[in-house]
């Protein structure tokens, strides 16, 4: 295919046409050609080599998964690799559907002394050879009940229309599938971990409001869904008609988030129209949750807490009660999913579950299979990170555990993650002088900096309401200046790791709300209802307010969950043990 296209190399990003993190199976092109299932990856294929770039979190995974003939490039930049591996004046092909316009411009600056030409190839060369390529799933789209959504499509659309009209736009384009699902109060199952459906949306706002929804019509055959579309002025069109329809537009001001549209879409609207960058304006209407959504988060966290406590109690009994030595990390995943499935309103997993024992905890994005799974031992640390979708919300939790007697070093490192977690949770700030993601990130990270340590992930990020488990518009990250506002729901998960040695992280979900006493200030509330690990606590490192906060948190967990566990003696005893007040005196 490369020879027919007259190119010397082909470059493939980890993207689909929506430039989204969570892709359908039929969009996993790098996985198909290389075997690698990680994210944040770019691949290049030449006539002689096939390589990938990924970040340090996935190095170990790449070594295990890459198929013969594939290699991971180390620290060498893509520009330097191209200088070394491709001849001057080489032609490098790409598919504009999977790159943003900014990324295309960045590509063109690589290795300028090589005089490389980056050529847009109309046919995707991976799809050309992927004969058994998974077709888009035909699972039906379903209505998302107003009792969970908290606002109608008409009410949500008014916010979008206001944004467009303020920017003097005639129409708006939405390519992010989670925003489309949220706006239209519809859900699907095209992505493994997200209740979304592949679609594009065009919003017409002058003079009348109407929508053109581009998706697979086969998914919309439910009479109730069809009636809903008609009622809300939503015209359904084939997914493949989107780009041709854009090319027919002329003389319009079109509102888009420039960073989120692929280069092919940009080219289609830029020739005869005026694109207007509305940045994250659409996204912020979604990430600021309404009261019904917040209450849904609260309720699903109760059920999630029940399932998680049952899992930890079961695991504790297997290791300490039955003295089992053959429980594997993978069996842990199966068990926690089994217990969550029994909870009311459970829908599905929301992410790949990390179940890591011993030294495996030091791998940030550890991925286990039945064949590679290690056993969980009572005398080693164990880390589990899991997220689940319920009809009324989405959860994510990380807990690090020890089912025996931890070392002083293990207790010290664990307790430091708790201190950082509590410090972030306690922050209060003026509503008119909001904290940014960068500021919040530093508030937690400082506890690791002071001992010469750091972690290579965000301290926290937004969580969608029965949508994407990660809303990247809301991030606590050293590079992010997003201003936190009332209604933001996000994670709080600082950690400390040493590859092939240890990893400690405790992650909760919290939301930003009005301060109960100071009306012009905002604060955070922890929604997660799973106790910390008492065995790993070093109370000598804790201040009095840390101990008070932990005891109050555990008391709240016990008051909420214990009545719901009254018929489960094993889980109730585990909960009582972990929620018992800390009574050791702190040093200061």
Description:
The chain is an alpha+beta fold and 588 residues long. It has 19 helices and 26 strands. It has a six-stranded mixed beta sheet. The protein has a six-stranded mixed beta sheet with strand order 12-11-10-8-13-14, sandwiched between helices. Strands 15, 16, 17 and 18 form a four-stranded antiparallel beta sheet that branches. α14 packs across α19 (569-579). The protein is globular. 44% of the residues are buried. The model has no long low-confidence stretch (mean pLDDT 94).
Descriptive tags:
globular; six-stranded mixed β-sheet; 588 residues; 19 helices; alpha+beta
Average pLDDT, rounded to a whole number, is 94
Helix proportion: 25-40%
Order of the strands making up the biggest sheet = 4-3-2-1-5-6
Major sheet: 6 strands, mixed
**What structural class should be given to the helix and strand makeup?**
alpha+beta
Number of helices: 19
Rg: 25 Å
Residue ranges: pLDDT <50 for 5 or more in a row?
Answer: none
Q: What kind of assembly state do the chains in view correspond to?
A: single chain
Distance between the termini: 69 Å
Chart the SSEs and their pairings.
Layout: H1 2-5, E1 9-13, H2 29-34, E2 41-46, E3 50-54, H3 59-65, E4 70-72, H4 78-85, E5 91-94, H5 101-108, E6 117-120, H6 125-129, E7 142-143, H7 146-149, H8 153-166, E8 171-174, H9 177-184, E9 186-187, E10 200-204, E11 210-215, H10 223-231, E12 234-238, H11 242-247, E13 253-256, H12 263-270, E14 274-277, H13 281-287, H14 291-321, H15 329-341, E15 346-349, E16 354-357, E17 381-390, E18 393-402, H16 408-425, E19 428-430, H17 437-449, E20 460-462, E21 471-476, E22 489-492, E23 495-498, E24 502-505, E25 508-514, E26 521-526, H18 544-561, H19 569-579
Parallel strand pairs: 1-5, 3-4, 5-6, 8-13, 11-12, 13-14
Antiparallel strand pairs: 1-2, 2-3, 7-9, 8-10, 10-11, 15-17, 16-17, 17-18, 19-26, 20-21, 22-25, 23-24, 25-26
């Amino acid at each position: 295919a490369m020879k027919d296209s007259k190119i010397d190399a082909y470059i493939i990003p980890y993207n689909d046409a929506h430039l989204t993190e969570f892709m359908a199976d039929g969009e996993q092109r790098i996985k198909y050609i290389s075997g690698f299932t990680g994210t944040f990856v770019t691949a290049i294929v030449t006539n002689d080599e096939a390589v990938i770039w990924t970040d340090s979190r996935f190095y170990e995974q790449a070594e295990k998964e890459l198929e013969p003939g594939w290699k991971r490039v180390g620290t060498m930049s893509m520009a330097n690799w191209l200088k070394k591996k491709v001849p001057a004046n080489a032609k490098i092909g790409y598919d504009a559907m999977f790159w943003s316009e900014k990324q295309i411009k960045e590509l063109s600056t690589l290795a300028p002394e090589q005089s490389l030409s980056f050529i847009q190839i109309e046919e995707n060369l991976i799809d050309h050879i992927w004969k058994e390529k998974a077709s888009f799933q035909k699972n039906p789209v379903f209505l998302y009940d107003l009792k969970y959504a908290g606002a109608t499509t008409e009410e949500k659309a008014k916010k979008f229309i206001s944004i467009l009209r303020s920017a003097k736009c005639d129409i708006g384009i939405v390519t992010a599938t989670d925003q489309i699902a949220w706006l239209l109060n519809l859900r699907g199952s095209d992505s493994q971990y997200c209740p979304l459906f592949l679609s594009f949306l065009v919003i017409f706002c002058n003079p009348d409001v109407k929508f053109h929804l581009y998706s697979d019509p086969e998914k919309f055959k439910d009479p109730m869904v069809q009636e809903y579309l008609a009622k809300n002025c939503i015209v359904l069109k084939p997914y493949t008609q989107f780009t041709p329809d854009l090319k027919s537009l002329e003389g319009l001001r079109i509102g888009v988030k420039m960073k989120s549209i692929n280069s092919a879409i940009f080219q289609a609207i830029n020739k005869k129209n005026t694109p207007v960058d509305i940045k994250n304006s659409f996204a912020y209407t979604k990430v600021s949750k309404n009261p019904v959504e917040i209450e849904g988060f609260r309720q699903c966290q109760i059920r999630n807490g029940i399932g998680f406590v049952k899992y930890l109690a079961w695991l504790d009994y297997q290791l300490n009660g039955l003295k089992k030595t053959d429980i594997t990390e993978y069996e842990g995943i199966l068990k926690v999913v089994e217990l969550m499935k029994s909870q009311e309103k459970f829908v599905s997993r929301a992410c790949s579950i990390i179940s890591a024992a011993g030294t495996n905890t030091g791998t940030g994005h550890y991925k286990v299979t039945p064949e590679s799974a290690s056993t969980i031992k009572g005398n080693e640390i164990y880390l589990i990170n899991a997220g689940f979708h319920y009809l009324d919300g989405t959860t994510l939790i990380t807990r690090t555990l020890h089912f025996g007697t931890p070392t002083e070093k293990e207790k010290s490192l664990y307790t430091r993650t708790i201190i950082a977690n509590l410090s972030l949770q306690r922050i209060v700030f003026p509503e008119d002088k909001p904290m940014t993601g960068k500021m919040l990130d530093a508030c937690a990270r400082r506890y690791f900096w002071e001992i010469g340590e750091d972690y290579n992930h965000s301290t926290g990020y937004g969580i969608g309401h029965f949508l994407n488990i990660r809303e990247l518009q809301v991030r606590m990250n050293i590079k992010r200046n997003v201003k936190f506002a009332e209604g933001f729901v996000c994670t709080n998960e600082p950690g400390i790791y040493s590859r092939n040695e240890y990893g400690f992280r405790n992650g909760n979900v919290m939301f930003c709300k009005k301060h109960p006493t100071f009306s012009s200030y905002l604060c955070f509330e922890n929604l997660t209802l799973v106790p910390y690990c008492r065995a790993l606590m070093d109370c000598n490192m804790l201040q009095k307010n840390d101990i008070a906060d932990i005891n109050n948190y555990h008391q709240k967990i016990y008051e909420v969950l214990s009545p719901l566990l009254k018929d489960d003696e094993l889980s109730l005893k585990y909960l009582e043990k972990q929620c018992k007040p800390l009574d050791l005196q702190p040093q200061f």
